[in-house]
Amino acid sequence: MDVSRRTALSVTAAGLIHVAAHPRSLWGQSVEPADVLIRQAAERGHTDLGWLRSYHSFSFADYYDQRHMGFRSLRVINDDRIAARRGFPTHPHRDMEIISYVLDGALQHKDSTGRGAIITPEDIQMMSAGTGITHSEFNPSADSANHFLQIWIQPAMRGARPRYSDQKVTTDQKRNQWTKIAGPDGAKAAVAIRQDALIFATNLLAGEKVDYTVEKSRYAWLQVARGELLVNGTLLRSGDAIATSRATRLHGEATEPTDALLFDLA
User: Fold this and answer.
1) In this structure, what CATH number is given to the domain that contains residue 84?
2) Which pLDDT score, from 0 to 100, does residue 35 have?
3) Which domain holds residue 94?
4) How many domains does the chain have?
5) CB pairs under 8 A, 24+ apart, for 73-76?
6) pLDDT, position 87
């Protein structure tokens, strides 16, 4: 990242964006002031335990950066790869909405609500920790690492009853459009979360385009899970993100096969 781009943008823990200079787009044109934040993949935190390789968009575990404590209610995006037949042993969570989005392989889940499932790239999984829940996550493959995003959303209410859900969301359903995979009750999303937040997913082939309008008083974070996506003239690669705190239109065009997530936040 060049110096002008590095110093131009910063974000508070509340998700308010400040621009000190005009960063440059792919084509060398100035981006409008106070419009966007670029979070480059190479600047994320990193954990390597051998069996687990993880990149952290926001402060997590031993990675701490006061400039990146979260974005509105979005607290965690961990880009995880777990080795074959390895995983997280049973551990607790409380008062957090936890979404797992598998990109490659499978993720086996068991929790203290009695629920369990094997999640694939054709599924979306949500666990609302509420008053307290324990769970384990495991890669059931005998020979291949998996790849998934673990997302934490801070709930609007604390002390709720724990709950779990998973739903089928196929690649075809996500092809060349923003598909609503999570949202509050009544939002007609694949899974429900206890927060005024919407999560969309898309799967694009090279040359395919998607648009999204961020409404007034809403905030958006667009995460490229893998591939390359040109967003309003800025090229984002795997692990990169773009965020906005203003009403705007986000126009994306894939330059290669791409999976991306978009968070529309209060």
Assistant:
1) 2.60.120.10
2) 67
3) 3-265
4) 1
5) 73/153, 73/154, 73/156, 73/195, 73/196, 73/197, 73/265, 73/266, 74/15, 74/151, 74/152, 74/153, 74/197, 74/221, 74/263, 74/265, 75/152, 75/153, 75/154, 76/150, 76/151, 76/152
6) 97
